[in-house]
Amino acid sequence: LHLKLANLNLARLENSQRLVGLGDWEYDPVSQNLTWSEGLYQILGLPLTAFPPNAGTFERLVHPDDLAAFRQAKKDAARGSHRMEFQHRIIRPDGEVRYFQQITETSRDDQGRPIRESGTIQDITRQKLSEAALRQSENRHLNMLMLSPDSHFALVDDHLTFVNRAFCTLMFARMRPPWKS
Asked: In this structure, is the dihedral angle defined by the CA atoms of residues 172, 177, 178 and 181, taken in order, positive or negative?
């Protein structure tokens, strides 16, 4: 009964991870055993049977522009940071670029030696692409306003604020010196 429940719980966990684009990993520094969840294989775009879990395999997928920061985060975790949270990209074997949010934790013994490392990786590609599309749309809108002969804006407390013609008329009327009335 316990084995059946454990298998059911594992199946639920794997399904949940698949639905939200999560994967996890765990590393035992003593035995040097690394395990990856099925969800991690899926978001990496790797077949479950073709690649045994390997730190080198994962690192080869990290986007070249993010590799230095990724390696630095690994060094920081090895030096004593118990929890690290960072973002990076990978390039899947099919060439698709994916964005990841990674959280890693290191458990240590009484002497400060790592006894267990674990991490959760979430595919945040949709979020990053949506943010980029929003920035592009905002920039396009801003450019249209700035280039329009009918646009009016004011700099208030170091913030650019767009205003209408009535606001400008009112403000400039108030700013007119009394001798020019």
From this structure: negative
